[in-house]
Amino acid sequence: MAVFRSDPCGIVCLLITYGALLYADYAVVRHLVIPVMSDTHPLYDSESVKLWGAISVVIFNFIIFLAVVSHLRAVLSDPGIVPIPKTTLDFSDMHSGHKSPCMLQLFTLQYIGFVSTYLLMASQPHIFPVFLKNTTYCLNNGWTVCMKCETYRPPRAHHCRVCQRCIRRMDHHCPWINNCVGEYNQKFFLQFLFYTGLACVFTISMVLVSWVLDPVSKRDLKNVKLLHSVALVAESLVFGLFVLAIGCDQVSSIFNDETAVEHVKKEEYRRPPRSKYHLLQEVFGRESPGLWLLPLQFNPINTVAENVTDPYGV
């Protein structure tokens, strides 16, 4: 299911992202590579230089392509939106703060083609909802009730005020993808960070190599090349350091098995210890690690059938 947010801040960030990628591609190819391969250049007859130019253009555009595809997947993919039940649920007792002595509700939770019907019997002491905050009730096994969405949500799901929905294993809302980073699109978000960082490193290396091969003797051409070179290095440093910081934070979050929302709210879930490889599989899927860097549809290790369990023991 494709999603797109109409958030103005997110749309502006999308335009900045694609503008920066397009400019980097144009400046590298037009002002760094092509001049070295031109007929008037003293190194034009060198086969190695022409081969370097051709290979560099192909590699750089392939990196840009993967960055764009992974970004689009992160932008348009469902991050793990918790569906709202088709049947309206009665949360009047929770809204008023009173506990009904006998609350019997039948509702249907529908998750990505998997439908499971649960019978809520809140009159039982071991499953009675516990009031936590104005908008959240905690149920058994980590399940909660979101009073904004008026729906039940699985463990580690949180409400996003921008998306106005609850997101499974929500990490944070990122304006750079105009979407939440959640259970189903965190893989694409990490891929976008990786390829953007790789493009930044490649751009800086291209600037250095191009000046070694083509110092430029003509003043006008030298000024133009210098201007674009400075702009490319500045852009690469800013975005490179930015994605490096976010990438390190994401990897740390995965290995600690704690999302950004959980860290801020200091929420603790009792989860069995797992290896780093298993934690990475939860994000990148069951496929071979060699496929983790490709922006392809993946088979998450926590499938709906595995992850949705009856928290009430009914």
Automatic annotation (TrEMBL):
One function term, GO molecular function aspect: protein-cysteine S-palmitoyltransferase activity
Keywords: Acyltransferase, Membrane, Transferase, Transmembrane, Transmembrane helix
Transmembrane segments: 9-29, 49-69, 102-121, 192-214, 226-247
Catalysed reaction equations from the record: L-cysteinyl-[protein] + hexadecanoyl-CoA = S-hexadecanoyl-L-cysteinyl-[protein] + CoA
Enzyme type, top EC level: transferase
Membrane topology designation: Multi-pass membrane protein
Cellular-component GO terms for this entry: membrane
Keyword Transmembrane (UniProt): yes
Sequence ranges assigned to domain Palmitoyltransferase DHHC in this UniProt record: 142-266
Subcellular location: Membrane
EC number(s) on file: 2.3.1.225
InterPro entries: Palmitoyltrfase_DHHC (IPR001594), PFA4/ZDH16/20/ERF2-like (IPR039859)
Highest rank taxon of the organism: Eukaryota
Any one Pfam family match given in the protein's UniProt record, by short name: DHHC
Stated family: Belongs to the DHHC palmitoyltransferase family.
PANTHER family noted in UniProt: PALMITOYLTRANSFERASE ZDHHC16
Domain remark text: The DHHC domain is required for palmitoyltransferase activity.
Protein name, per record: Palmitoyltransferase
Source species of the chain: Octopus sinensis
Gene name in the database record: LOC115221311
